[in-house]
Write a structure and sequence with these properties.
Oligomer: heterodimer
Structural class of chain A: mainly alpha
Helix content of chain A: 40-55%
Shape of chain A: globular
Strand content of chain A: under 5%
Number of strands of chain A: 2
Order of helices and strands of chain A: HHHHHHHHHHHEHHE
Structural class of chain B: alpha/beta
Distance between the termini of chain B: 23 Å
Number of helices of chain B: 22
Number of domains of chain B: 4
Strand order of the largest sheet of chain B: 5-4-3-6-18
Largest interface: A-B, 47 and 50 residues
Shape of chain B: globular
Strand order of the largest sheet of chain A: 1-2
Bound molecules: iron/sulfur cluster
CATH class of the largest domain in chain B: Alpha Beta
Largest sheet of chain A: 2 strands, antiparallel
CATH superfamily of the largest domain in chain B: FAD/NAD(P)-binding domain
Strand content of chain B: 5-15%
Number of helices of chain A: 13
Number of strands of chain B: 18
Chain lengths: 264, 523
């Protein structure tokens, strides 16, 4: 199946609480919200039916608890398929895939910048939330602005109980959101590579996951097409299971010599 | 998209974010920029709750978006370079002219000197890396240069009084001269020989590169208004200090023309490959009889093929295996077809009259090593040495640094003397014409930056990379076209070109084989 179809289905699988819009009642608060998605979707999104894994981690940590169940859940997925969730399920990844297709001036980021996402993970999601007892990453999360912050404020389901709360922090989040849009248009999966703490968690498993990419060095002619088409800009023939690989299998499908294949 | 359009779209984008993009046909990019810019402004306007210090980051981000939008309007959509482009020493973008050829449209390209000559004699490193290898054979990138209907885009030249002197009218010197002239500088080229062209004029035999083609190309360059002074040898007719006084900058592109010696007893009797090629081009005939050529480079093959055409019986002696030869495999095969015998793994050790002594070698760890007690003797009428050349730059030995092999040491095209640039074979050792052209074009850019004192970042900003729209063509199953060769019996009798030019229709269909990698392989 085409990847974009799966990505679309995954988006609606997680975000289908249209009653919130129809009945104008804010967001879903049913029992499912106790569970978290394997991918990135804001808890406060009016359509969301479950909660954000990062939000849950921060929630537990800010209560000084260790989020065993979230870690176990993400770890289990990671051990099997590594970062494949990013390539096939994550709606934010999907958004970046779409926006990168816009024909604009593009630039490449240096590879070391990709380590910044671990800073976001440990600095904000883990230590930040633990120390401040607040969801620290959510304060800058552009996904939250995209899915919840901006639509909720514009739509205003709680009859003007939100707008008076707007202060400098909201302006700040809008500025991050605008920068986020610019960067994901002009650089490949910028958010996934540089910022995403969830991607950082999964990428720790990439080297060891059961699903692995393999390159047949005899067939490969080093044409570099795989780097050209990889959403993460990975030179597959040199580092097939680099921490950033989102297992989208574009390289497997399009390698002209069929040198890349999925192995175990 | 023509080149003027991006200037207009840049101006539009300064005043209307996203407008320039829409003007130049990139609707979605325009919408995206407009939405991120005006959309967030509108959002803030709707929810405005009064000024606070959260407004500053917003302001910064709006300015960033505005600037990026201007940059985008100027630069346009950028492609990732495919292997053919990345491996071209002259910095040519083959996939672009291939795409125009396949669409049967004239190709607007920025000026590339020696374009057609490269189409005849370049060893085509681009083809060695072409992605199409994965399916069958590489696209015939090199030969298709001959089929492109080129329209050179000439940038509007600024007038400048700065003058640049170039020593050596070879591919590097002339490319540099052309490129600088197009940028508006006063250029004077000095050449030691009586005619311009350098190595291609002197040492590429007529059957690989007809003089008429070379002359056409050189005349095109000279017609830009370059002052050429032939028969001027720096160090003899004019000193280097005089040049430094006369010109703001000078560039040494004298190539590597002094043949390397073998240092064996009896070497007084031998000829050197490059001298034979030079004299043969002037119309001299060499009828030696049995000839041995020492060497495995392009010069060795060329000289052997030239001598065969004079009716000599030619053997090439090479110290490694035939497949290790630096010469192009195709040229080597053509030489064998013409009846030249290649004797690998031998080394000459001495000459006594017609008796030439050789010793056998073997390859140990990639290097040839002498096999003891394996001397043998061959009777030859003439030995020709073509084991390489070195630069002949005694006239500036005390001015700048050279390495131990006699090549000039450069950094970004500039030698250790601040007013002297250098490029081509005199820097890199004997390489291809494409390398020389590439050096010339890059040095021109450096000199331009240096004379106009532009920091590197601004030079990058001003460069418009891809001024055109390309089309992804459907994959064709066609195999690589055959390039017709004259048969070996007839071709060793004269100096007419060995490779014939395919028909325009054939070339168009060959160009369709290009996968257009940057468009086909993208996220
Ligand atoms: S696309 Fe395939 S053949 Fe080309 S470099 Fe990548 S793995 Fe190798
Ligand atoms: S390496 Fe292949 S599977 Fe991994 S992200 Fe790149 S294209 Fe997708
Ligand atoms: S297929 Fe076309 S674009 Fe790709 S490397 Fe070959 S010539 Fe270049």
């Amino acid at each position: 199946m085409r990847r974009w179809i799966i990505q679309t289905i995954a988006f609606f699988a997680g975000n289908h609480y249209f009653q919130s819009i129809i009945r104008n009642e804010g967001f879903y608060q049913g029992p499912l919200k106790r569970f978290c998605f394997p991918y990135f979707t804001c808890y406060s999104c009016p359509l969301a039916v479950a909660s954000c894994p990062l939000g849950s981690i921060q929630h537990f940590l800010s209560l000084q608890l260790i989020p065993f169940y979230v870690i176990g859940f993400l770890g289990l997925i990671g051990v099997f398929i590594g970062r494949m969730v990013c390539g096939y399920l994550c709606p934010i990844g999907f958004l970046q895939d779409i926006l990168y297709r816009i024909k604009s001036f593009k630039f490449k980021i240096p590879n070391w910048l990709a380590n910044l996402k671990y800073v976001f993970l440990f600095g904000l999601v883990v230590i930040g939330a633990y120390l401040t007892a607040e969801p620290a990453f959510c304060k800058i999360c552009p996904v939250g602005s995209t899915q919840a912050g901006i639509p909720l404020v514009l739509w205003d389901p709680f009859q003007s109980s939100l707008r008076p709360l707007i202060g400098w922090h909201y302006y700040f989040k809008v500025s991050i959101f605008a920068l986020f849009l610019l960067l994901i248009i002009s650089s490949r999966r910028f958010f996934c590579r540089v910022m995403c703490p969830l991607g950082a968690i999964y990428s720790l498993f990439n080297r060891f996951s059961i699903l692995q990419l393999r390159v047949n060095k005899d067939k490969c002619i080093e044409c570099n097409s795989c780097e050209l088409l990889c959403p993460m800009g990975i030179k597959v023939y040199q580092q097939p299971n680099q921490a950033d690989c989102i297992r989208c299998f574009e390289c497997v499908k399009k390698c002209p010599t069929k040198a890349v294949y999925v192995g175990w | 998209m023509s080149d003027g359009k991006n200037k207009i779209s840049t101006i539009i984008s300064v005043f209307l974010v996203g407008g320039g993009q829409i003007y130049s046909g990139r609707i979605w990019a325009g919408i995206a920029f407009a939405l991120t810019f005006y959309g967030t402004i509108a959002l803030i306007k709707i929810i405005w709750t009064g000024f606070n210090f959260g407004f500053y980051p917003l302001l910064v981000v709006w300015i960033i978006i505005w600037l990026y939008n201007i940059l985008d309007a100027y630069k346009g959509y950028c492609y990732e370079p495919p292997p053919c482009e990345r491996n071209c020493p002259a910095g040519i973008r083959p996939w672009i002219y291939l795409n125009y050829l396949a669409q049967d449209k004239p190709a607007p390209l920025s000026y590339i000197p020696f374009f057609e000559i490269l189409g005849m004699v370049c060893p085509a490193p681009c083809e060695d890396h072409c992605t199409r290898r994965a399916y069958d054979d590489p696209v015939a990138i090199k030969h298709l240069k001959l089929g492109v209907k080129k329209v050179w885009i000439r940038p509007k030249a600024r007038k400048s009084n700065a003058s640049v002197g170039i020593v050596g009218a070879g591919p590097c010197g002339l490319s540099l001269a052309a490129s600088l002239k197009l940028r508006g500088y006063q250029v004077t080229v000095m050449e030691r020989e009586g005619y311009p062209g350098g190595m291609p004029a002197i040492a590429i035999p007529e059957f690989r590169l007809p003089t008429s083609v070379l002359k056409k190309e050189v005349d095109e360059i000279l017609s830009l208004g370059i002052e050429l002074r032939t028969g001027v040898e720096v160090g003899r007719d004019i000193s280097i200090d005089e040049l430094l006084d006369r010109f703001d900058l000078i560039t040494i592109a004298v190539g590597a023309m002094k043949p390397l010696r073998l240092d064996i007893p009896g070497e007084e009797r031998v000829c050197y490959g490059i001298d034979i090629l030079r004299r043969a081009k002037k119309g001299e005939r060499f009828e030696f009889g049995r000839v041995g050529v020492i060497g495995g480079g392009n010069t060795a093959i060329d000289v052997a093929r030239t001598l065969v055409r004079f009716g000599n019986e030619v053997k090439i002696y090479y110290r490694r295996r035939a497949e290790d030869m630096p010469a192009e495999p195709e040229d080597r095969e053509e030489a064998v077809e013409e009846g030249i015998e290649i004797i690998p793994l031998v080394l000459p050790i001495g000459i006594e009259g017609k008796r030439h002594h050789f010793i056998r070698t073997r390859i140990v760890d990639g290097r040839p090593e002498i096999v003891e007690n394996s001397e043998f003797e061959v009777e030859l009428d003439q030995l020709v040495i073509a084991i390489g050349q070195e630069p002949d730059i005694d006239f500036l030995k005390d001015k700048l640094l050279t390495d131990q092999r006699g090549f000039i040491v450069v950094k970004n095209g500039r030698s250790s003397h601040p007013k002297i640039y250098a490029g081509g074979d005199v820097v890199a050792g004997p390489k291809t014409i494409a390398h020389a052209v590439g050096h010339g074009l890059r040095i021109a850019q450096r000199i331009d930056q240096n004379l106009r004192k532009i920091p590197g970042f601004f030079a990058w900003l001003g460069k418009r990379e891809y001024p055109f729209e390309l089309k992804l063509l459907p994959f064709t199953e066609r195999r690589r076209m055959m390039i017709p060769h004259r048969n070996s019996e007839s071709r060793i009798k004269d100096f007419e070109p060995v490779e014939l030019i395919p028909s325009p229709d054939e070339m168009k269909r060959e160009a369709e084989r290009c996968l257009v990698c940057p468009l086909r392989y993208r996220p």
